[in-house]
């Protein structure tokens, strides 16, 4: 994961026209850029721009972001080490804030989580094919196959939910589904890699720390699932995500 990140990537994307793409074709720019952030393990404070665009405020500023447990953080545009389990992300606590542009932010984070999930699955799959036990690749063992298959199903299901999401409630469900897929990927891929997956030097650990933080931003999987259930119970009906 030796890729350009942070302030340097932020400037590079600005030079390449990220603000114009976000303004003119957000439906293309956001999935493309945030999925690639996850797949490559890079990071940049682009969530601020997505929220700014959704709220009609100038790009380039920062916005307080709700974090799991009722706390608030700000994603700085500098490279000052953060205070979370993923110190690479320049996230720092603030006292309070106002939740704005939440749906657009959840949509972007969901793509980021799915990119990270696919990166973890790729690492686990490669290891399962290369690692041999009892004279054959561990990928031939049924337990490994089941873990990787369950991970893939969770990722594909979350992406289908995200693709169909076209309103605020859809974004909530998509973020919850993407967070769940990422946590499943982290658990199963960790088990597939075995001891090497626990080492700090392996890329898997960096992806795991990343998804733990991204899942907590703008509502964790647990919080969003609970909120969705409360809404459905109150309304007495569940909205249809995809109209057949």
Helical run tally:
9
Helix content: 55-70%
Q: List segments where confidence is low: pLDDT < 50 over at least 5 consecutive residues.
A: none
What sort of overall outline do the alpha carbons produce when their principal axes are compared? globular
Q: Give the DSSP E fraction (strand runs of 2 or more residues).
A: 5-15%
Helix and strand run: HHHHEEEHEEHHHH
Structural class: mainly alpha
Q: Any idea what the radius of gyration is?
A: 18 Å
Summarize the biggest pleated sheet: 3 strands, antiparallel
The total of beta strands comes to 5
- Neighbour order of strands in the largest sheet: 1-2-3
**Oligomeric nature of the chains:** single chain
Instruction: Indicate the mean pLDDT.
Output: 93
Termini separation: 41 Å
Keywords: FAD, Flavoprotein, Oxidoreductase
Pfam families: Acyl-CoA_dh_1 (PF00441)
Domain Acyl-CoA dehydrogenase/oxidase C-terminal: 103-220
Organism: Nocardia vinacea
Structure description:
The model has no long low-confidence stretch (mean pLDDT 93). This protein is 61% helix and 7% strand. It has a 3-stranded antiparallel beta sheet, with no helix packed on it. A two-stranded antiparallel sheet has the order 4-5. The protein contains 9 helices and 5 strands; from the N terminus they run ααααβββαββαααα. Helix 2 (18-24) crosses helix 3, helix 3 packs parallel to helix 5 and helix 4 (46-55) runs antiparallel to helix 5 (102-130). It is globular. With 244 residues, the chain is mostly helical. The chain has helices at 6-16, 18-24, 26-40, 46-55, 102-130, 142-164, 168-193, 203-216, 221-235, and strands spanning 64-67, 71-75, 91-94, 132-133, 136-137. The protein starts with 5 loop residues before the first helix and ends in a 9-residue tail after the last helix.
């Amino acid at each position: 994961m030796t890729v350009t990140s942070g302030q340097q990537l932020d400037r590079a994307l600005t030079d390449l026209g990220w603000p114009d793409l976000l303004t003119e074709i957000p439906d293309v720019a956001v999935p493309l850029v945030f999925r690639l952030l996850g797949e490559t393990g890079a990071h940049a404070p682009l969530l601020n721009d997505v929220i700014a665009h959704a709220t009609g405020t100038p790009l380039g500023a920062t916005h307080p972001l709700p974090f799991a447990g009722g706390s608030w953080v700000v994603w700085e545009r500098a490279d000052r080490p953060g205070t979370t389990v993923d110190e690479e992300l320049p996230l720092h606590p603030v006292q309070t804030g106002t939740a704005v542009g939440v749906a657009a932010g959840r949509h972007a984070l969901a793509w980021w989580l799915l990119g990270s999930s696919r990166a973890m699955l790729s690492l686990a799959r490669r290891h399962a094919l290369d690692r041999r036990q009892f004279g054959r690749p561990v990928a031939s063992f049924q337990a490994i196959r089941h873990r990787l298959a369950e991970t893939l199903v969770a990722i594909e299901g979350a992406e289908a939910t995200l693709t169909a999401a076209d309103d605020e409630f859809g974004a909530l469900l998509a973020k919850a589904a993407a967070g769940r897929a990422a946590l499943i990927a982290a658990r199963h891929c960790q088990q597939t890699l075995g001891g090497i997956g626990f080492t700090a030097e392996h890329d898997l650990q960096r992806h795991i720390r990343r998804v733990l933080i991204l899942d907590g931003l703008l509502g964790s999987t647990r919080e969003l699932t609970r909120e969705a259930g409360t809404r459905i119970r109150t309304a007495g009906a569940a909205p249809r995500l995809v109209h057949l």
